[in-house]
Write a structure and sequence with these properties.
single chain; alpha/beta; ten-stranded mixed β-sheet
Length: 206
């Protein structure tokens, strides 16, 4: 059964964050808040956890388009190839924020992602997700959790999320009601920014 843990974004409890991180390190799955919709995530270094998420999403792991949730841009070279100054300025200007940026994948990606030519990098402007990634010491591999409702694409109530995902994940972090608009996805692999999905992030800046 999934445990519902309340964490306040204004002041994330280190004890609660440690509990979430301990579960991630053991290969557990966690649903957590971001600056857009709630995400389903696991430790990027745990292959069995990655397989579990791929199975839930009904995709092959090596072909899955998961995002890498990072604390900041300091370790970008571990996951993306060297980028030019213009691309870095775009990232610096808009992150943390409600964007997922598609970048060329590096040669040092975790083994299960070695064949991927691109990666989605995300740094949410949310103190809970940043605290989790910081305490974990490496990114979370993440995907948005969608709702079966035809009107509401994303569930925003963490208690309802916990009920629905009770047997699939280990922890649901209650960080308050989430948004129902996903991140804006921008492809930066071709030189000019290309909008792949319009979301919460403003497109006027591009």
């Amino acid at each position: 059964m999934a445990e519902l843990i309340k964490i306040y974004e204004e002041n994330p409890s280190p004890k609660a964050i440690k509990k979430v991180v301990d579960v991630l390190k053991k290969g557990g799955l966690v649903i957590y808040p971001t600056d857009t919709v709630y995400g389903l995530g696991c430790d990027i270094t745990n292959n069995s956890a990655l397989e579990k998420i791929a199975k839930i999403k009904g995709v092959k792991l090596e072909k899955a388009n998961f995002s890498f949730i990072c604390e900041d841009l300091s370790n970008l070279s571990e996951y993306a190839k060297q980028i030019d100054n213009q691309t870095f300025k775009i990232l610096k200007r808009n992150l943390p924020g409600p964007y997922t940026f598609i970048l060329p994948g590096s040669n040092t990606l975790p083994s299960v992602f070695k064949k991927k030519k691109t990666v989605g990098i995300r740094i949410p402007d949310n103190s809970i997700s940043k605290a989790i990634v910081s305490a974990l010491g490496n990114p979370i591999v993440s995907t948005s959790i969608k709702d079966n409702d035809e009107v509401i694409e994303y569930t925003t109530d963490p208690e309802l999320i916990a009920e629905k995902w009770d047997k699939l994940v280990d922890i649901v972090v209650d960080g308050g009601f989430g948004d129902n608009v996903a991140s804006t996805v921008i492809d930066l692999t071709t030189g000019e920014p290309e909008v792949i999905r319009k979301g919460k992030g403003d497109l006027a800046i591009f």
